[in-house]
Write a structure and sequence with these properties.
The structure holds 2 protein chains of 2 kinds. Chain A is mainly α. Helices cover 75% and strands 2% of the residues of chain A. Chain A contains 11 helices and 2 strands; from the N terminus they run ααααβααααβααα. In chain A, strands 1-2 form a two-stranded antiparallel ribbon. In chain A, 48% of the residues are buried. In chain B, the strands form 2 sheets. In chain B, strands 6-7-8-3-9-10 form a 6-stranded mixed sheet, with helices on both faces. Chain B is globular, with a radius of gyration of 19 Å. The chains are: A mainly alpha, B alpha/beta.
Chain lengths: 310, 264
């Protein structure tokens, strides 16, 4: 009973975190599902978004303008990875790792130290974990929730435009895209940029939520993003067919991920094991479709063999 | 309409896998020419089409489409002039996208893609009418994912996509080879209908000798990266498969060998 009470108490916080990481996970969805590229830049660009936002906020910038700059910084990190891949022929996973590594130095340089706090008592912030139970606009549940819905709307519109369709086609079939006059290199860069822009934007929210930016805040972000994508698909994949709903399912996947994390911690799991647990869960979910195919293939061979013998 | 001048291509030069795929190809197509291409394994048929499409750069020579030298243009820029259907039904369409979305992508070939809506209501109506021509029931499945279609349906759709915006040259790379005989015939019939109706300049590689003789107004035979036989008009119509095999033996000094060749 006490545990349930604790869980309920922690629920607004878990959902807030889930919403913030949901924006990040939608970024991952764009590369991983739409573009069919596993982009590891996100571990670095997530922190870049936070770092840029914190420094600008401390310098007295308008909060939404700081968020916009974080988004632009994210676009830039994506452009680097995209160009490493398309212009220099580096495989996308390696290109992402290279950018991610270099971003560690860049993030350190931007902050001049490993972490930087933005105290909600001294600085005006868009959201803070302190306000998760307040009935006000600056409650992260409300602000991030509204932003998330708007973002899904904008992305839904964008992927329905000629440019968005070309991006989807690039991810779906490179040969066909080129035959239809689509510049696939440009679209790959564009997709990776857009993805990292969203990831950095989410990072900018998270640093305000937790009250600090840290060069390590993006560590393992790709795994959390993938977990959200996979959980969302596993639970809502059969009922959510529309593209906007698919994006929503990614965000819901992220929220569920954070509620589950909160639950296992409340139940007494060593918090140090959390990343291990996340990785194991993602590995298993990634393996399931493969195992399914293998099982089916085996099954079909047997069925056919039976026919031949009969 | 299409001119291939002295095009040469060697794959993996300087290695043990060196392969001279095109050995000085010259070909001139007039507007409305419908050329069928036959030849043995590794004759350079597909390589020739890929050179025209810009899949790989040429070693030397020029490719001119409708007066424009496209030799240095990347594949996606040449697409403006070309319609292409591939041997593998999976290649020409995006499986994860809807039938109408695939058509809309093709309708914008050669145009700058900006933030206008990707498919308009007017287009949807047009596509419905166009799909009726195929007579495959696709007009009722505009929003179905292409991945749900059969190989024949996908090839027919690819053909429609390739010709939706009238191409200067239509390139068909054994586009019926992966289909069962009945479907292959149907797709070939649709091909002829579309090509003749729009007076399209077309190159069609085929492994079916009878089709190569029956379809189109010109036939070329390739061997070892060269065109060894080029016939058109009345002379082509009078050919038999036996003539072709004999012709090959005389010109190439060996028997025609092709894993998939169909004589009937």
């Amino acid at each position: 009973m006490e545990i349930l009470q604790q869980l309920l108490n922690a629920l607004p916080g878990s959902i807030s975190q889930g919403l913030i990481w949901g924006i990040m996970a939608i970024g991952v969805y764009i590369t991983y599902r739409i573009l069919d590229v596993a982009d590891l830049t996100v571990d670095g660009s997530f922190a870049t978004g936070g770092v840029v936002a914190v420094m600008l906020i401390l310098n007295g910038w308008n909060l939404w303008l700081a968020m916009l700059m974080a988004f632009l910084a994210g676009l830039l990190t994506g452009a680097v990875t995209g160009l490493l891949h398309t212009l220099m022929g580096i495989p996308p996973i390696l290109a992402g790792i290279l950018t991610q590594l270099s971003l560690y130095s860049i993030n350190l340089k931007i902050m001049s130290k490993a972490n930087q706090s933005v105290n909600v008592n001294q600085t005006d912030l868009l959201i803070s974990l302190r306000w998760v139970k307040e009935l006000a606009f600056h409650n992260p549940l409300i602000t991030v929730g509204i932003v998330l819905v708007v973002l899904i709307g904008v992305l839904y519109w964008f992927f329905g435009t000629e440019m968005g369709c070309a991006l989807r086609a690039t991810g779906a079939n490179l040969n066909m895209s080129r035959a239809q006059g689509i510049n696939t290199s440009f679209n790959k860069v564009l997709g990776i940029m857009l993805s990292n822009g969203l990831v950095a934007f989410a990072g900018a929210f998270l640093c305000q939520y937790q009250g600090f930016a840290d060069v390590k805040m993006g560590q393992g972000a790709i795994v959390i993003g993938l977990a959200a994508v996979i959980i969302g698909e596993a639970i809502f994949g059969k009922i959510f067919r529309n593209f906007a709903l698919r994006l929503l399912s990614v965000a819901l996947g992220s929220i569920i991920y954070y509620i589950v994390v909160q639950a296992v911690i409340t139940l007494g799991l060593d918090a140090n094991l959390l990343k291990l647990l996340s990785a194991v869960i993602v590995a298993i979910f990634l393996a399931i479709p493969y195992w399914k195919r293998q099982y089916k293939a085996k099954h079909m061979v047997r069925a056919k063999g039976g026919k031949v013998n009969a | 309409m299409l001119e291939i001048k002295n095009v040469e291509k060697t794959f993996n030069p300087g290695t043990i896998n060196e392969k001279k795929a095109l050995n000085g190809i010259n070909l001139h197509l007039n507007e409305g020419d419908f050329v069928t291409v036959i030849g043995g394994n590794g004759a350079g048929k597909s390589t020739m089409l890929n050179m025209v499409a810009g899949v790989y750069p040429v070693d030397c020579g020029n490719i001119i489409i409708d007066g424009v030298d496209v030799t240095r243009l990347p594949e996606y820029k040449r697409a403006k002039y070309l319609g292409r259907v591939f041997q593998d039904p999976m290649t020409g369409t995006a499986a994860d996208m809807q039938i109408e979305e695939n058509l809309a992508l093709a309708a914008r070939r050669g145009k700058t893609r900006l933030l206008r809506v990707g498919i308009t209501a007017k287009e949807r109506k047009e596509y419905k009418e166009l799909l009726k021509i195929l007579d495959l029931g696709l007009e009722e499945r505009l929003t179905a994912k292409v991945g749900l279609l059969s190989g024949g349906q996908r090839q027919a759709l690819t053909l429609l996509m390739a010709t939706l915006k009238k191409p200067k040259v239509l390139l068909l790379d054994e586009h019926t080879a992966a289909l069962d005989p009945k479907t292959a015939k149907k797709v070939l019939d649709i091909t002829e209908e579309i090509v003749l109706k729009n007076n399209l300049t077309t190159i069609m590689i085929t492994h079916n000798m009878a089709d190569a003789i029956r379809v189109g107004n010109r036939l070329i035979m390739m061997n070892n990266g060269k065109i060894i036989f080029d016939v058109s008009g009345e002379e082509k119509k009078r050919l038999t498969t036996a003539d072709l095999l004999e012709k090959f033996k005389v010109s190439a000094g060996e028997e025609l060998s092709n894993d998939r060749i169909l004589l009937s």
